[in-house]
Amino acid sequence: MARYATGTENTFTLFSTYCVLKFNSKFQGPILKTKLLAALIGFMLMLSGCSDSGETASPAGVLESIALTPANPSLPAGLTQQLTATGTYSNGTSVDITSAISSWSSDTNSSATINSAGLVSSVAVGSAVMTASLDGISAATTVTVTDALLESIALTPANPSLAAGIPQQLIATGTYS
Fold first, then answer.
1. pLDDT recorded at residue 5
2. What's the CA gap between 23 and 1, in Å, rounded?
3. Fewest C-beta atoms under 10 Å: which of 78, 85, 123, 145?
4. DSSP character string of 29-58
5. Collapsed DSSP state (helix, strand, coil) of residue 100
6. How far does Cα 70 stand from its chain's mean position?
């Protein structure tokens, strides 16, 4: 943040290929050089794709929509699933914005939760709507949590050697997802 003797403040925040340019007040300084410098900085940021509206901008567009993938995933209880957020911009470009999402949320944490990076953790059988938001634009997908799935069965002992007529106890162990 730049604070001038006249009380004028300017906040410039830049990150990755996205940026936000926010002017907190008008340039009303008595010194022409300050106004020229501020205009030059604003012009350079505009050329780099920044927006003074506070919206996230790609090098040549404003975020218009978000899509989440995979769409409506189903996963067994106890597993995780990474969601990916793709932003579509006013210039027609689509960019992975997963790490730029400002808010991830679940409407039913008892079924599935989601962390700040978009990683879904399934908790119990049911469903939960996961929502991603950035710059007032949101997208949602429904995660369905199923019972754990049987993946394999192992018998022990593995190759028993028995005399005729002698019983042998076998133990079956199931491995679930």
1. 43
2. 10
3. 78
4. -S-HHHHHHHHHHHHHHHHTT--TTS--EE
5. helix
6. 12
- Total number of residues shown for the chain: 177
151-172 tens-digit pLDDT:
899 999 988 888 888 898 999 9
Name 103's bridge partners.
133
Burial of 164 (0-12, 13-18, 19+ CB in 10 A): exposed
Q: Where are the beta strands (DSSP E) in the chain?
A: 2-3, 9-15, 18-23, 57-58, 61-69, 74-76, 80-82, 84-89, 94-96, 103-106, 112-114, 119-122, 126-134, 137-146, 150-156, 171-176
Q: What is the pTM of this model?
A: 0.58
pLDDT tens-place string over residues 2-45: 443 444 444 443 333 333 333 444 444 444 445 555 555 655 55
